[in-house]
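Appendix C. Worked example: Glycogen synthase
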Amino acid sequence: MNVLSVASEVFPLIKTGGLADVAGALPIALDGQGVRMRTLLPGYPAVMQQLTRPHKIASLTSTFGDEMRILAAQQAGLDILILDAPAYFDRSGGPYLDVTGLDYPDNWKRFAALSYAACEIARGLLPDWRPDIVHAHDWQAAMTPVYMRYTGLERVPNIITVHNLAFQGQFGPEIFPGLGLPQEAFGVEGLEFYGHVSFLKGGLRTAWEVTTVSPTYAQEITTPDFGMGLDGLVNARAHQLMGIVNGIDTTVWDPATDPHIAARYGAASLRQRGENRKALMERFDLDDGAGPLFCVVSRLTWQKGIDLIAEAADWIVAEGGRLAVLGAGDAALEGALLSAAARHPGRIGVVIGYNEPLSHLMQAGADAILIPSRFEPCGLTQLYGLRYGCVPIVARTGGLADTVIDANEAALTARVATGFQFAPVTADGFRQALRRAFTAFAEPKVWARLQNQGMKCDVSWERSAERYSKFYSSLLARV
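Step 2, the predicted output written as structure tokens:
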């Protein structure tokens, strides 16, 4: 079974968030299921610099008249196809933002070109390979099923996975003529969304099937609270909507072999985590203490509930806790956390930015990870936490609700608890969960059971890859 995956970022070549982790891990997991997945991604400078012996296999012209090439390469166990289009991707900023932190004004053109290239690959552009199924990820690839629908490929099975419905790829109606689509595509059954063009809406409307990254999030996005204005469309396609929870790459994230941590360990050698805790305290210039060391590895945004963490920071310190934060995002939230660190030197440490090796050390050295997201389609950091014995404290939403077993009395008695959930997602709700964590941490045996149970969880891609494989097979059966 040949599957073309279309994504705007793929770990380890380029990463800004969890999408890259999923796009990088799923092909490897599917290989054991008899699925050959090739991944098409843009030729950003960071990607081009890492490629080993890429070779040209096809050329095409975008709907805007720009010449593009398809390069092929094998990288980190992945079968990669690169859209080499310097006019769109050879830039000094990031994948989506320029050096000043603003969206590229032609993002619509850049990712329409990616989707158009995917459509042409599905049509048979490559000389020796054609996909049986096309799998698009998020708004950046959402035009793929749109192009397929309106250019005669509607009989080729395709799906779109929504990693976060909040990001929809909305642009003004003036861009539509440049997309190279018939006028009928700009309508209620296509791209039109309150007078604008919405890439994600178009993908949701035209794809054969829709998946998202956890069963609970699949239910949530049918409601006005989580549907981001698209709940009506999602409800109309509810019979073609499936939630498959993400996994993680358990070879990259393995405390027994991780090269980024101070001391390797397993569930049977949790005492070794103490060396990582010490290294983490030193990295953030924190004083040791008897209370728990909490960590945050996140985009610093309202969605992630970072304002709740900033509000609780003084209270955490007053209760004897420590806090280490790694992330970047909203300037106001960055400032609030930096101010908290300035108020509590040796108790709170903040690193603005993203650092992959440091994120591994934080999972290996902190006692608990804080994830008070207001909505969270799946989340990966709680899965890393479970894998590393870093107890997750999470809001009861989306994939967080699906992957963490709350340490209530019944779960603790049955010894199945793996973390702490809370709802509603308010300052009071968050503080209640923190209080429960402080209480459990004061009982070493209880805390060790939470860690051990979390480390026993299967957070790999194995089960999810099996579900995707069966799902792909069901699509092919309809051809």
